Amino acid sequence: MNLETEKTMSRPEVSTAPVRKAELEELLIDAEADDEQVQQSHPLVRRPWLLLLGLILVALNLRPALSSMAPLLGEVSKSLGLSAAQAGLLTTLPVLCLGLFAPLAPLLARRFGAERVVLGILLTLAGGIILRSNFGEIGLFAGSVLGGASIGIIGVLLPGIVKRDFAKHAGTMTGVYTMALCLGAAMAAGSTVPLSEHFDHSWAMGLGFWVIPALVAAVFWLPQIGQKHGAHNLAYRVRGLLRDPLAWQVTLYMGLQSSLAYIVFGWLPSILIGRGLTPTQAGLVLSGSVIIQLASSLAAPWLATRGKDQRLAIVVVMALTLGGLFGCLFAPIEGLWGWAILLGLGQGGTFSLALTLIVLRSRDSHVAANLSSMSQGFGYTLASMGPFAVGVVHDWTGGWNAVGWIFGIIGAGAILAGLGAGRALYVQVVSEKV
């Protein structure tokens, strides 16, 4: 056993008892001291503002490929002659790829470095957007797979980068990152239909437009390739996550809250169109709901890290989410915007807390990167079942009312998992230098 392994294992592990505030502060001081000893010979990134800008621009591109499809789903299906089952698959496939390809992220980062992987996958995402919008039905599905895979890999790497370079402000930085992600989703949901109408009602142009911000993000991320990021450029192997109950609770919370989020991205416009709205109106409601997430995605992690743990915060944001979903589905259409705002406040908090839990339940950036891979890999695979189930239930019943059962079951599961994941504990793992 090498010295690095011994040092990691020698720190006291927390398993069944909550971490008291004094103990948590002592552990954080020890971890920071270890990092500072190694960083003396490997300076951290010299221009953190440039890294912050790059992170924001990258995050802006992690949802447009998903949220831009929903308002145009009916037009795309009609244009290409897609069946209801194929349309349902189109909403499920990218989310499934988020989970299936997430485990590749730590492997690629270990081989090439996280910064190079993010740059390369941004270009892959741009290729998927072009493929999806220009090559008919085959290109539509192939591009959706490529886009989902790209988003899944980048999404796993960013929490580890936040933990590494902004460790003292992890909660705030996670909120900023999530806020940028929500902004990208809102812009795509609200502007894709107007863009397609501007380009002679071409859905291909509406979807293809989002290659531009992906390429812009790649340009601004390029300087990170030449930066030194200290000891964290070393390769570490983390063992024991799959045997840790807390890691599974974080994973289940990530997956179940994400399932509700991707139901909203994939089906909320169709639900609202079924209730009498036009595609443009439905897209604007989705966009408005996601814009509201900007506030709660920034505030929720900050507030949640001020308490002894995150359990109360998780219950509150999940209650807001379920209230908004049921309101959009069943309440009178005249009050729709109020329910959409409630939904946005809830979902902005649920996702940012899920990312915050990855950071808070990890002792260092290596554990955070691997917990991120696990929670998003298994979590998004689980999440993909939500949009698929909505499509199946809608086909069976011919309406949307029965979808409320799906909301309730998934929401209850997310609350139960969150009550476990929100405790002030650390995952028990062994982190060793490769």
UniProtKB/TrEMBL annotation:
Name the source's superkingdom.
Answer: Bacteria
**One Pfam short name:** MFS_1
Claim: NAD is one of the keywords in the record: no
Q: What InterPro entries does the entry give? A: CynX-like, MFS, MFS_Cyanate_Porter, MFS_trans_sf
CDD domains recorded:
MFS_NIMT_CynX_like
Alphabetically sorted, this entry's keywords are: Membrane, Transmembrane, Transmembrane helix
Query: Per the UniProt record, which residue ranges are transmembrane?
Result: 49-66, 86-105, 117-135, 141-162, 174-195, 207-225, 246-268, 280-300, 312-333, 339-360, 367-390, 402-426
Q: What is this protein called?
A: Cyanate MFS transporter
Q: Which organism is it from?
A: Pseudomonas glycinae
